[in-house]
Amino acid sequence: MISLIVKIGPIAAIFIAWFYTYYQGIITAVNIWAVSEIFNHCFFVIPGAFFLIYQKRIPLFQQPFITNYWLLLPLMGTLILYTFGHVGDIRLFMHIATFASLPLLIWFVIGNQAAKVIAFPLFFMLFSIPFGEQLVPYLQELTTDLAVPLLELTGIPVYRNGLYLEIPEGRFLVAEACSGISFLITSIVFGNLYAYISFRTLPKRLFFICISVIIPILANAIRVYGIVLIAHLTDMEYAAGADHLIYGGVFFALVLFLLIMIGESLRDKTEITEPQKSIAKEGNSVKTISVNNKPVMTSVVIILLFISQNFWLSTVVSSKSTLVDDALIVDLMTLPLMVKEEKLKKWRPDFSKASNIQQGVIKRPNSPDSIEFFIATYFGGEGELISSGNKLYSADRWTLIKNTKVSIDEEKDIQLIKIVSPSGQYRYILYWYQFSSEVFTNKVKLKLYQTWRAMLGQRQQSVIIALSIESEQEMAAVIAMLQPQVNIIQDSIKD
C-alpha cells in the first residue's frame, strides 16, 4: 500500500497542481460547454480520451516512462499564454493554454516512447477547447453562396440582399443558427474519432477527416435550400419557425449516417489484434513499471513551475496603473459641432458596461441630413472594450453587407461597414478604436496591445468612436460627408 502511494502520490500531486493553476480556464470552459449547444460534446472529450488511454494500458505500461524535460519549454509557453489571457480576459487563450497543457503534462511525465502509444488520445483532448464560433460569419456567407445557385437551378426566383434571401412568398435570413457551425464542429470531432478507430493508415484517416469537414458544409447549404424550397411550394405554410429546428435535427442525423456509411465502405476489413488479447493468450503477466525513474523529482519540478506562474499572475492582476486618466479622450460637447445627445434607436449599438457613453446626433450646417454618433469610453481596469457582448449594431435588425478599411488621411485608416435592414434601408457606420492617442481598426490587435500594456501595469483609457448615416449613396459620397466630423474629432485627440 505504501509503495503504491509512493508511485501514485507524485502524479496525483501534479494533476492537483494543474487543476488549481488552470482553475479559471476550466470553469469558464465548462460554463461554455453547458450554455452553448455547439460545445455540449466537449463534456465527453476528456473522459473519452482517458478511456482510449485505458484501452492502450498494456502496451503503454510496456514502455519505459522517462521524463522528457524538454517539454518544460512548451509547458512554460502555455503558462505564459494563460497569464496573458487571464490578464486580458481573452478566454480563448485561457482555454487553449488549459487544454493544451494537459496532454503536454502527460507527455512530460511518461516520455516520448510511451506518448507515441497514446498519441491520438492526447491529441483528442484538444477538442475540449470551445473554439469555432468565430467561423459563424464566414459559414453564413458560404451557406448563402451555395444556397442561391441551388434555388436558381430549380427555377425559384430569388433576390439576395446580404444574408437575406427574398422569394415571391417571403423573406429568409441566413442567421447564425443557419450557419451550420454545430454540424461542422461535431462532425469534425466525430470524424477524427471514427478515423482513429476504423483506419490504420494515415492517408485514409486524413481523407476521412477531410470528408467530415466538407460534407456538413454542403449538407447545411442543401438544408437551407430545402427550407426555402418547401416554403415556396407550400406558400410559407411549412419550413418556418420550429420547423427549422426539426429539419436541422433530422439533417444532422443524416449527416452522421452518411459519414458512417462512407467510413464503413472504406474501413480496414482486417481485424486489428489487440495487444491485451495477444498477451493474455501467451499467459504471461504484464510487468507494470514505475511512473519514471525519479517520480518525486518530476512532481517537484512541475509544482514549482505552477507555483511560480501563480505568483506571477497574482502580481500582475493586483498591480495598479498610475497612468489612468479619468478625463474623457473624446468629449463631443466641447468640440465645434452642433451636437444633440439622445438615445439611438435605429442601429442600437450596445456597450452596456462602458464607463461613459455619449450618443446622439450631429447637425450638419446647411444640410437636412444629420449624422448619428456613438462613443463608448472605458477607463483603465473598468470593463472590456473588446468583448463578444459588445455590439456595434443590432444583429436582429441589420445584416452586414460590406466591411472595409478606408483612409481618412495619410497616417490613419478607419473602418467602414455597410448594413441593411429587412425593409431594405441601407446604413453606413464609420468607426475606429482609440487607445490613448493611438488608432486601431483591428480589434484583435487592440486587444493584444491592451493586454500587453496591462501586463506592464499600464491600464489606459480606450474608446470606440462611431459615426453613422442612413444613405442610399455610394461609399465615396458617404465618406466625403463624414470626413469633416472625423477630422475634428481626431484633431481634438491629437491636442
TrEMBL record:
Cellular compartment(s): Cell membrane
Q: Where is the Methanolan biosynthesis EpsI domain?
A: 342-475
Organism whose genome encodes this protein: Colwellia marinimaniae
Q: Its membrane topology, per UniProt?
A: Multi-pass membrane protein
Q: Would you tell me the protein name for this molecule? A: Exosortase A
Q: Which UniProt keywords apply?
A: Cell membrane, Hydrolase, Membrane, Protease, Transmembrane, Transmembrane helix
NCBIfam families recorded: 8TM_EpsH (TIGR02602), exo_archaeo (TIGR04178), exosort_XrtA (TIGR03109)
Q: Which regions span the lipid bilayer?
A: 12-32, 38-54, 66-84, 90-110, 117-136, 172-194, 206-233, 245-262, 296-313
Tell me the InterPro entries matching this sequence. EpsH-like, Exo/Archaeosortase_dom, Exosortase, Exosortase-1, Methanolan_biosynth_EpsI
